[in-house]
TrEMBL record:
Descriptive protein name: Leucine-rich repeat-containing N-terminal plant-type domain-containing protein
Keyword line: Glycoprotein, Leucine-rich repeat, Membrane, Repeat, Signal, Transmembrane, Transmembrane helix
Domain Leucine-rich repeat-containing N-terminal plant-type: 28-65
Signal peptide: 1-20
Main location: membrane
Source species, domain of life: Eukaryota
Lipid bilayer topology: Single-pass membrane protein
Organism: Rubroshorea leprosula
GO biological process: anatomical structure morphogenesis; defense response; plant organ development; post-embryonic development; response to other organism
Compartments, as annotated in UniProt: Membrane
InterPro entries hit by this protein: Leu-rich_rpt, LRR_dom_sf, LRR_N_plant-typ, LRR_R13L4/SHOC2-like, LRRC69/RLP
All residue ranges annotated as the Disease resistance R13L4/SHOC-2-like LRR domain in the record: 263-390
A GO cellular component annotation in the UniProt record: membrane
Amino acid sequence: MASPMFFLLLLQSFLVSTSASSTTSLVNQTETLLKWKASLDDQSQSFLSSWVGNNPCNWVGIACDGVGSVTNISLSNFGLKGTLDNLNFLAFPNLIRFDVGNNSLHGAIPSDIVNLSKLTFLNLSSNDNFSGNIPKDIGRLSLLTALDLAWNQLNGSLPVSVGNLSNLSYLGISGNNLSGSLPQEVGMMRSLLVVHLALNSFTGPIPASIGNLSNCRDLYLFGNELSGSIPTDIGRMSSLKQLHLLVNRLNGSIPQEVGMIRYLILLDFSNNALTGMIPKAIENFSHLRHLYLYGNELSGSIPREIGMIQSLLDLQLLGNNLKGVIPTSIGNLTSLATLLLWDNELIGSIPSEIGFLNSLTNLALHDNSFSGPIPASLGNLTSLNNLRLSKNMLSGPIPTSLGNLASLNNLSLSENMLSGPIPASLGNLSSLSILSLYEDMLSGPIPASIGKLTRLTILQLRGNSLSGPIPV
Ligand SMILES: *[C@@H]1O[C@H](CO)[C@@H](O)[C@H](O)[C@H]1NC(C)=O
Ligand SMILES: *[C@@H]1O[C@H](CO)[C@@H](O)[C@H](O)[C@H]1NC(C)=O
Ligand SMILES: *[C@@H]1O[C@H](CO)[C@@H](O)[C@H](O)[C@H]1NC(C)=O
Ligand SMILES: *[C@@H]1O[C@H](CO)[C@@H](O)[C@H](O)[C@H]1NC(C)=O
Ligand SMILES: *[C@@H]1O[C@H](CO)[C@@H](O)[C@H](O)[C@H]1NC(C)=O
Ligand SMILES: *[C@@H]1O[C@H](CO)[C@@H](O)[C@H](O)[C@H]1NC(C)=O
Ligand SMILES: *[C@@H]1O[C@H](CO)[C@@H](O)[C@H](O)[C@H]1NC(C)=O
Ligand SMILES: *[C@@H]1O[C@H](CO)[C@@H](O)[C@H](O)[C@H]1NC(C)=O
Ligand SMILES: *[C@@H]1O[C@H](CO)[C@@H](O)[C@H](O)[C@H]1NC(C)=O
Ligand SMILES: *[C@@H]1O[C@H](CO)[C@@H](O)[C@H](O)[C@H]1NC(C)=O
Ligand SMILES: *[C@@H]1O[C@H](CO)[C@@H](O)[C@H](O)[C@H]1NC(C)=O
Ligand SMILES: *[C@@H]1O[C@H](CO)[C@@H](O)[C@H](O)[C@H]1NC(C)=O
């Protein structure tokens, strides 16, 4: 058995060598930081005026561990101008946090950054601008929980090594110039909660492996050049609340499996090239507030099941090839504030059940083929700002009840076959700035009450059979 003295000696020599190496490393860290400071512009150096002397642990933006080794460099919003070229990351083996978000730094991300094996938080976002590639070995930073490189000018591809970032919960790459396809390894980052890959130039399909991100709450892929169909695996992203796939080149039909994402609050597939029908599985969305499918090539009719999404606030299906009638179940959507169905091929009469949607502020059904009368029940929608029914085949009179829409700003009923007189009640629409009734079949005098509409800037009455003077 070794004597206690032996252990004491061992312990002593351990302490001496540790403190010696940490002293060396502190000198090294001090010199490294001062060298970087000296490489920045004069104003940046003045922001770092506390960076003098030989104890960086007291400097602004720097924190150290118990033995004086730098663990944090936190300099977001400092207005720093320069590059990272003169910052030797190898001097900071214990660095946990490196945050220089929102500065004016530019140039490359030094490849040595991947040697910071203890790093958990890396933020280079919103600079002016980091450029070049994301280091190929970024996946070596295996303890990272947040990686934010957004709003720079990084180019090249997203390295496949990201698949090794199994602790990452926040991935921010939006607003760069990355290209190539999304690696299938994206699906290996199982801890991801928030994924920002928007506004780059990614091409190719959304990898099916994305379905493995079962903890992910927010997925932002908008503003790329992604193509192919939406993978059915997306239905496995059971924690998703926001799904932003807008402004890509996605085609094929919307998979029924999206209906498996029960807690979705926002689904935005607008401005793609999607075809086929709106899936009936939307009936499973019990928390959905925003449904944006506009600017696609969707066909078929609006499913009756839409009436099951009673949480909906905003329904935008405009600019598709939708056919058939508006289902009467729409009357169930009593929280709806925005209903935009314009520029489709919808037919039949406007269901009077729309009159139940008393939260509506914006109702636009123009550029369709609706026929029959304007339902008097629209007069119940007293929160309406916009009522645009132009370019349909609506007939019959303008309901007197529309005079109840006290908040109305824009009333456009032009290019229909509406007949009879202009109701005097429209003179009660004291907020109205646009009254567009041209190319209908209206007759009789223009009511004097129209003269009360002092906010009116556009009054279009041509192409009718109206008589008498224009009131002033
Ligand atoms: C250093 O970073 C760690 C981990 O991100 C954090 O918990 C800690 O609050 C930071 N300390 C300082 C002084 O910034
Ligand atoms: C970015 O930093 C500047 C200071 O350099 C600050 O004025 C600005 O508010 C910051 N922006 C954000 C979004 O935090
Ligand atoms: C600081 O440490 C790094 C990494 O060990 C080394 O490359 C560098 O030469 C050292 N610098 C000084 C001034 O000692
Ligand atoms: C990174 O820094 C920017 C600017 O300070 C900030 O807006 C952003 O939220 C930070 N990212 C993370 C993941 O905290
Ligand atoms: C840094 O990491 C790279 C691999 O990405 C490795 O080749 C290199 O040896 C490492 N450098 C040091 C000093 O550990
Ligand atoms: C950084 O990039 C953005 C986006 O491309 C650009 O608007 C901005 O002018 C750039 N800043 C500098 C200083 O180049
Ligand atoms: C990335 O940008 C740099 C200039 O910052 C350029 O030299 C390089 O060719 C670009 N690479 C790719 C893959 O676009
Ligand atoms: C992930 O790490 C392992 C072990 O370090 C390595 O063998 C593998 O190549 C890495 N994977 C990727 C995609 O970089
Ligand atoms: C990283 O994730 C693994 C599981 O993937 C977990 O065991 C480990 O505790 C995590 N590490 C940290 C620092 O969170
Ligand atoms: C992004 O990269 C493309 C080529 O991949 C290039 O044409 C374009 O100018 C780049 N945009 C910016 C803002 O650097
Ligand atoms: C209206 O909503 C209720 C409750 O979600 C539902 O039971 C009913 O079937 C819906 N009606 C229609 C026509 O969709
Ligand atoms: C509209 O309001 C009237 C009362 O002004 C009411 O009798 C009618 O049921 C309402 N119709 C709808 C569809 O809400």
